[in-house]
Structures are given as structure tokens and as C-alpha cells.
């Protein structure tokens, strides 16, 4: 179960396209759903605030053994983990950051805007990993626009600024940017992590571990 | 404007009692309101999640030059600041922590439960002040119960554990505990900060500063 | 009681001008005094060292319920708090930093010189809040010169460098810079905190709280 | 390819037993090998030092798309990542710590000895995640002995000490302790992470991601 | 030149006894002097504040190529370094902490009192090394009393508490405790660092380096 | 005993030249030896990994009361300290960093390459001193090449970048750069620390302290 926590169909579809190839591994069913009634994207902290309970309501309604909150802001993640403590709950943002810390030494985040940048800084501090974060650089955009192919140059510019700040790995800070991962990696010559692909593959790994244990590792 | 972000009238009344003496200073009007429809208290992260947007809705409805979110979890605080950027928005928890860092060297928090403890740890890390925090100790209670006089012994026990951990100042981690501040201070022999009183006095200071500047300092 | 810990009359007068409007709130008497015999300003660490005991002597001589040490270096602050533990003692620097952490996410400081910059870095580390500090940028000046109107352009340049480093709020790192707050805020388009105004309003808030408690919160 | 970096056959067999159930997912071949000539376990830092190049030699000899270094000390991990930069290289220790930071708020590690404890502290600091680590508690044992069933009581005692220090999740700090995970979880009533199972499932996730990308994410 | 920054002759004599054996190495002259007019010891922050300028005055009066400030609080150290930037200035406290971080992994400090403990915490944070500090434990004493042989049991008790907190090396937090180093080390079974001996030997090393360079390294 | 942990004779000779003047102080014998069979320099983490056990083997073979590992990467340092716990073991890198933290407020490192930079970052984090480190800047070189006089301009450029990042002291991140210390200091106008000279003088200080104690301080 992959939850796009915003109401934009184009974002839900972009996520679904990214998830598609993962469906052929093993016998896991992966559903992607949007969040009708939610804002079209998380631009401001208030968007994340209003979306959090909606994500938790979707999880209460649609039973699954694992949920992915497919928004870099991870709206509702911590409450969901506390409430659904026998399910695997993966936050796109948190998971991408841990992958970046595995694959590189210092990471940077390409963010949509200065408001995203501040949310990301707070998340990084809350995660207790600020010592390996060089910062975020914005591209003055939003989740819907990020599904279009136009943004690559701006992302490359933001990525190069992050490299100048010491990043040896870059995370795209939005769930709609999967299609930019490969060209961005080519242009920047350092690894680029897409939060959606990273989250889906991590969730499959966690589901395998859970079956192995015969129960949730975190129960 | 002091917002009790839960729906418990007894908590709203306790806050109002604590606020009363502050009404005699200067010419500021201080209103206290509850949040009908909200959970009776913030026990879990999901409670804080659901309350955040309600607090922001109250702020949109009731105009004031300063708002106090009278819950230690500061639900909706960051979004509110972003959205109402010409108002003063004080979070009870954040403000009490900064006062503790002014008056003491290492602070600890008396929390309602292990769930509150985890939220407090995350807040402290997010605030970037973990280096001066010795931890939280719970009393297995909730916001409504905390208005009753029965809890003092448990609070003293939690406070002493915090002192053993190195705290030289203690914060009561709930907006309903104001009446315990003085006896707790007497029993622990170190300063105790009540988030409500601290927030109201800080808000008055900020209002005076705002008038002085003729506009919001943070606009 | 506001103590200008240097011997420069022009600085004392500048502080007095800034304090004047605050005198009309409530029934608090606010006196401003200088420190005859002290250096004309805190340029070097040795200046702060020599001034610390002078500030404490002034406090021992002039009884007040609250003292503001009106120098960003907070000379003598920690010793004063230990010694006069039933009084409110506000340090201009420390207090401005906490206000900046309330109103913004990452703060920077406009400093007088590279020597001030190093003192500020040490203070920020000692306060345990380095995770939210982007740094200080100097204007090659001193406390006396900062009372003149000439410095605005240099301060704007320093402020812009701080913004480039990620600051979303800026603190003026000297008690003589109050008159620059408003034009600087206009030029930088982010909030600017003046340590004197911030300290006086915070002290009034703390005095109100102390009256409420009928004794010092930190006793 | 799972590399047991010590020369103890009983440890290699224990790892193989833990890995077995994972072989039925997908079409990945998982081989487990020991390191003849290495010390029987990593008791001291010098053991880890001598084993690092051996692990890297094994990797140069045995081609695989992913390698797991099945020792909590992650000997040779960072050099291996630098050298084999088109392969996935998972360190048991590092990976378990990131899983603990996903599933819990504060983690502790059950270590073999005081020497392991110091290595773990250094690793945690080097990873930049010390803010969420409560510490390690030793059981005065070694990797070979840890394959026997006798140690459970000592592990429970160590785990309880970690809980008292604030841990809400515990990691077993040795690759031979997989069979203790479930009983330990039952006794401690908080989640327990086994580094081997966690690493294998994470490696499968990463292999799926790599196939999806058609090349190494970190190339 | 070793400066005892307090006025107690017995402390000056104790330092001189500790320094004596170092006089036989090389051709360096080592003088020990007290600070007439200073408080008998640094018990409170105000003592350190008043002593700082006195130490700097002594340095201005007595020319030497290296100065040791023989008090764990390092009164006047930072100002002295700024002012006498062609001399070597060693602070007993700072130097002992760096030696502890070289010889051990986590250090603790045996302090005279709760006031010393707070100064030490602030110093450790200001030095930016809090991540390796387990804390300080007091013995309710003062610098003069510490020259007597009575305190060993209390120091052992404090040292054991530091070991329980995770220290593998202990620093005696006062310049009058040199004679306790060896018996304390025997009782605690971990290394104990005496700030005076450590500072003198480090100063000799630094003088040799300075001669080698033909000028101050830090000029 | 100074161990050059690589196999390049020119580096061994450069170290010997730097050590020579220190031989005239006191009665200590200082031998310099290379490491036949080791890589010509530590370019990659795998070089450091392979060299660590060789350094420890040299120490086991050649008895001395103090050893200096004359490579900025400190290969084998931590294992050596654990194993030879009655000897003084100085790591060039670690020791230079502590000297930099004594003489300056924020330090930067001139590194050979991006690979060295990453090792340095990890070392700084592992040492727990990242709060005072502005970063490393590379000169695209290696240990052998660094013995030639050609590199000064590149080092000056790297040094200036570090100053721009806030460094007030710079460390040369390689044991072959001693001859650049003085000209670099002249060009940068801030102190420059050479790890070899710093380590030798510190080792002499520690040997004097050890004789004073009649046994190893850290035994």
C-alpha cells in the first residue's frame, strides 16, 4: 500500500509509474492510492498538518501489512507508527535520508521551496542526523509541477550547489521527481536517491523480514 | 488569546485560573478558549496530529495580536507561525524550554506518559537543544487527571529522578499542572517552570515589543 | 535596571533612547546606567573579562528586581546569576538568541569584528544551540562607532552573507545598534532582532511572572 | 553473498541458518562464507583491523552484486564501498542501527564486551547518530560463545539496563545472536533487531532497487 | 611560568611540589607563582570572573615564553591567548580534557562542588567536546581542602560514579589534587589525569616545538 | 620511534628531516622507520585498512616507550592503543586536531584528495569534535608528490577556502608536508599546524610525564 498523501492525480500516477516495475518481484501486491480532499501538494507546513490525520484515516480504512507515505514531508508518519504498531510504516523522506547516509558520507536535499527547506531541516534535526546534512537547495516549484520534464536544469543547478557545500550524494525532496533521478545522476556525477523507489524497495525488504520473523519486528 | 487545544473544560478552566492574575498587568485582553471536537487531551502523537489543524482554524476565526497554544506538545505551532506570520504565536512547550535554558543549565521534563516523553525528545532534538536536556520522566497520567491535586507525589518522584540525571531546573510537561508549580518547587528545592504562566508572561513581553516596533518583529 | 557595561556615554544614551518607549507599559521603573572605569566597549575578550566583575559590583550596589546586561557579550552574566539568585538577570546576547530561535529556524549574527565573531561562536556552543546558528559576519567596527548612522550599508552586506549561509533571521550583535533594526529589516526582508529591545520586553515579561509567583521563579 | 568475517565455523553455520528462510524469496542466490585465517571473532580492535583487508580480498575474489559483512563491527566496510563502488555493500552494524532508528526513537546495543562497547560508541559517533543512542551494555562474551543458548539471561539483563537508560529498541551487537532475537523480544517487551536478518532483508530490497534502476544506485 | 590563580599559599606550594620533578628535563626554567589579592580558590563563577583579569595582569608583568594557568576553571585563558598571541598559554582544564580524549574514549571529571560541575559542563560544551563527556561528580570540597590527604575516599566514590556513567578515564577537576592521582588510579583501575602534571609536560612539548619553528606556532 | 606507515622512502626521509631538530632536546632517542611492503601512501581507505595491521606488527617488533604513527589517517591507531596499553601511542592526525583546537577556534584541514577529505570527516566525527571543524579542502595530490616543493600554490588556495569557511587555524593533512608549514603560514596569515612536528613535540611531553609518574599515565 503506497499512499500519495495529496489529492493530485498526476502525482498519484507518477508514483504508480515508478512503483510498477517493483510489482514483478515476489508475491507482494502493491496498491497506490491518492488522498481525495487533501491539498494538491505539501507546499506549507499547514498542508502537512492537515494531511497527517487524513493519511492515518486511509491507513485505518485500507488494511495492509506495510504502508508507504509517499511524500517527502512524511505527514502523519510518527502518529501512524504509534497507532498501527503491528504494521510496517515507511516514510519516503526518512527512508531516503537513511539510504543516503548508507551510500554516501554527506547528503544534500533538492527541495521544492524555502518552506520545504525549513521542514527538511527540522526533520533532519529531529532525526538526529544533522551532522551529515549539508543543507537543502530549492527549485521554486511544487509537487504537481515536479511531474513535468521542465525542471531538470533547475534541479541540476540546485544539485551542484549541494555538491559545493560538500554533498557526495543528493536526495530529491519530493515524491514526484522519480523520473529525474537518472538524468540528474548523469549530470551531477554523484548518486541521486529517489524517495519513492527507495521506499518501495525498502518496504519489500521489511515485508520479507516480517514474514521471516512471523510477526512484525517492531511489535 | 490563549488556546487550550483540547476539548476538556476542566483543563480550559485550569488554564483560565492560571491566566487570571496576568490580566491585571497593562491593557492587554487575554481570552482563554477550548477546542470543541478535539480529543480530551494530547495523549498520543495522533491526538497532536488531529489537533494541529483545529488550532490553526481557531486562529483563523478569532483574530488576536498574539496566540498561545496552551499544550506542551505545541500542536500546530510551526504551521501557525508560517501562516499567521504577522501575529505572535507562542508554544507553551517551546517557550518553557527556552526559559529553562535561561534560568538553569540542564533541564528535565516531567511528562504525562512514555508517549509524551517520546514527543518531548523529538521536540528537543528538533529545537536543536538536546545538549542541555537530561530527559523526561513520566507520571502515567493524562491532561484531565493532571488538574486534580492527587499527582504531586508522583511528580516529586519524577522530578527527583531528573535531578539525579543532572537537571538543575525542571519543566512540568503539561498545561494543566500550573497549580503544582509552587509545591513542587518547595519539594524539589530547584526551580520549576510552569509552561502556561511562562507563556503568558512571555506573550505580554512580546506584545510590548511589537507595539514598540509598530509592527510584528518577525514580519 | 539596565546596565550598559561599558564606559561610553554615547552608548548609554543610545540604550536609553531605545528603552524610553518601554517605560510607558505597566508600573515598572527602568533605569539605565553606564559603567565608569570600564573600557569604552567590548572589543576583545579581555574587555569582557575586566568588565564582568564591574557589572557584578554595580548589581551589588544598585538593588533592583531585574537586571539587563546591555552588551551582546553578556559580561559577568553567569556569575551574576549564581550570586544574585533571587533577581532576574537577562543577558542581551543570550536572550536575543533565544528570541531568534523562537521566531526563525536558523539565525545569524552581525558582529562588530572577528574577535566578536569568535566570542559569539563560543557563546553559541556554550549555550548548546550551535545546530541552529549559521555563523557571524563582521562589519569591522566597535560599540561607539555603531551608534552612528554610517554603518547601515556594511550591516546590510553582512546580513546578506548570513542569508546566503541559510539564516532566516538575523540578530544585531551589539547593544548600540537598535536604531538600525528597522531599516535593516526593510533591506534584508527577513526579521532582525535588536538585543536591547528584546531584552527589555523579556525582562518586563519576567517581572510580571515573578509578581504572579510572589517570588523569583528561579529561586 | 554474506561474508562471515571470522574463521569460526560455528558462527558461519549460525549465520547460514538465519539466512536460509530468506532464500525462498525471489530469485536471488545467497551464499554464506567464512574467512579462513581470520581470528575466531572480533574481540579487539586489532581483530577488526586485521580482518578488514581479508574481507576486501574475499570480495575481490568472489563476484556478487551485493555483499553483507556479517559482523557488527563492519570490518573493512568503508574501504570496500570505496573500492567496489558498483556493488551493494551492507554492513551488519550500520544497517541494524538505521533500522533501529526507523522503528524506535532511542536505541541501545547489547555488546559482547567493554571492547565491543567502545568500538560501538566510535561507530555511532562516526555515523553521526549519537543523539539517538543510549549506550551499549556488555555480556562478557565472544562471537563463538554467543552461538550457544546459555547467554539469554545475561542478554535480558543487559537489555533491561538499556531500557532504564531510555532505549525503546535494542540491537544485538553480534552476528551470532540471531536465535536470541525472539526470546529476547518476549522478555524485554520492546523490539529487538538482529543484525543478520536485518541486513539480508535490506540487501534484497537494495538488489530489487538496483535491478529497477538497471545499475547501481550509488555508482 | 606556572600561575596559580588563587591566593592560597598551600595550593601554590602543592603545585610547586608537583612541578619540581619536571625541572630536571631540558633547560627550561619553570617558575610557580600565586596571585595575591585573589580569592583563596575558585568556588563560584564570580571567583573565576574576578581572577581572570588578575591572571592577565600577572602575564603582562612577568615575561615568559609559556604560561600555565593552574586552575581547572582556566580563568582568563581565552582573553590571555588573544592578548599574548606570541606566547604559549596552556589552560589546565582544557589541556587535561584533550589528554583524556587522547588516552580514553569517554571522560568524566571529579569536581569540587555543584558549582564547579556547572562550570565544567559549560566549558565542555564551549570546547565542542560534549559528545565524549559523561559528566562531573562533586566531592563537596574546595581548592584549599583538596591539598589535604583526607579526600581520597570521596574522590574514589565520585570516580566510581563516573565509571558507572561510562567513563573509561577520569580527570581530577582541580589543580590541588596532584597527590591523589596515583592512589586514585590504583583504586579506580582506570587512568586518572592530573591537570597540573599534564599541563607542565604539554607546555614543555610546546616550547620544544616553538624553538623548532623559531617562532610561536600560533603567531 | 616514529613510524612512517607507508613504503615511500622519500616520505620517510622527509619525516626524518622534520624530526632531526627535536633530537637535540633531552635524552630521548628518536628513530624513524618506514613500512616496507605497505602502499606508497594512504590514498584510499583500503590503503589505511591494509596498513593498520602492518603498523601494529612494527610496534610489536620494535620496542619503544612511545610510538608516533606518522600518517594523518592514523592507520592502526585505535587497535595499537588497545594492544600496547603501556606505551604512548600518538596519532599524527588526532594530535594535530587537538593542537588546532587549543590554538584556534575553528580549524580546517588541507587534504590530499576527496578520498582523504572523507576519511578526515569521519575521523573528526568519530573524535566527537565536528562542532569546531569547518571542513577539508583537497589539492588533488598524494603523499609522495607532497614532498616536492611544487604544491605550495595549491595549498594556499585550499587554505584560503578554509579561511572563507571560517577557519582561524589550518592543519596540513599529510605527514609529508612539514616543509610547507612556514611558507603557508606566511601566505595565509593564520597559524598552520604540521602534524609531524606537533606529534613529536607532544610525544616528548608525554614521555616526560610518563617518567614523572614512573609508569604510563594511561596504563
Automatic annotation (TrEMBL), chains A, B, C, D, E, F:
Source species, domain of life? Bacteria
**Secretion signal: which residues?**
none
Q: What Pfam families does the record point to?
A: Asp_Glu_race
Note the InterPro entries from the entry: Asp/Glu/hydantoin_racemase, Asp/Glu_race, Hydantoin_racemase-like, Iso_Racemase_Enz_sf
Single Gene Ontology MF annotation: amino-acid racemase activity
Q: Its family?
A: Belongs to the HyuE racemase family.
| Protein name as annotated | Asp/Glu racemase
Recorded source organism is Gluconacetobacter asukensis
